[in-house]
Amino acid sequence: MPPLRHFTRHMPKRRDEILDGGSIYWVVNGVIMVRQPVLDILADTEADGSACAALVLDPELIRVEGRAMRAFQGWRYLDPKDAPADLAAMGKGAEEMPDSMRRALAALALL
Questions:
Q1: Measuring CA to CA, which residue among 96, 23, 98, 103 is closest to residue 61?
Q2: Distances 110 to 54, 67, 97 between C-alpha atoms, Å
Q3: Is 111 within a domain?
């Protein structure tokens, strides 16, 4: 089975930073929901022959703290300090908790 890849037109300018633990963040219905680690970035070719870059992705999706966000190119613009926390790092049970409850507890500094 070939590696999971996401194609983009241009090679990222911050390639080395992305390969040093970077992820692509997926926005679903206006909310960042998961991240997917980028394992490699390769020069590739589109079906029409034009050059592109292929982000080789880890097949595992890592749930993150939901955050409202318009669609964006997360691998290019999301700095680590601005990235939402992984749910697994928020403590036992955070992944099973409904998003609304998790947000309410976080607002009260209880999570």
A1: 23
A2: 41, 18, 13
A3: no
